[in-house]
Amino acid sequence: MTVKVVALIKSKDAISRDEFLNFWQVEHPAFVWEMPGVVQYVQSPAIEHRKGWPYSGMAELYFDTVADVATAFRSPAADALREHEHHFIEDIQWFLASETPVPQPVPVEK
Q1: Packing angle between helix 66-73 and helix 76-85, nearest 10 degrees?
Q2: Residue 1: pLDDT band by 50, 70, 90 thresholds?
Q3: Which fold has domain 3-97?
Q4: How far apart are CA 23 and CA 31, in angstroms?
Q5: Strand 57-63 relative to strand 40-45: parallel, antiparallel, unpaired?
Q6: What is the DSSP string of 30-95?
Q7: Contact at 8 Å (CB) between 59 and 41?
Q8: How far are the Cα atoms of 4, 61, 65, 107 from residue 9, in angstroms, in the given order?
Q9: Total Cβ atoms within 10 A of residue 105
Q10: Which among 12, 27, 31, 77 is least surrounded, fewest beta carbons within 10 Å?
Q11: What is the pLDDT of residue 52?
């Protein structure tokens, strides 16, 4: 079973959206990929909207096992990752999840 870390991210108020996205999308991936066991990394930045969203974006880090998650976040690479996050993340809430594909229902003929 693949497991993923789902992280809900709030950017620092003191930086612009462009600065946040540069830190997150340009600089930060190198830190993520240095952690052992990461098999996929997906970023989902919130779309700009007149309404202020509660989060600036979501990140998903995929691993083969929960043990791999623990190993990655105990590694020296995770220390460097967390240090980098201090530059652009105000708050981060996360949880571990698995995925359950949900098929589209077959239409019932009437």
Answers
A1: 70
A2: confident
A3: Alpha-Beta Plaits (3.30.70)
A4: 11
A5: antiparallel
A6: HHHHHSTT--EEEEEEPPP-SSPPS-SEEEEEEESSHHHHHHHHTSHHHHHHHHHHTTTEEEEEEE
A7: yes
A8: 15, 13, 23, 38
A9: 6
A10: 27
A11: 86
pTM assigned to the model: 0.90
pLDDT tens string 10-23: 999 999 999 999 99
| Cα gap 11→103, rounded to integer Å | 34
Our CA dihedral for 53, 41, 62, 102, rounded to 10 degrees, sits at 60
Tokens standing for 96? 């571990």
- Is 56 within 8 Å of 109 (Cβ atoms)? no
pLDDT for the residue 32:
98
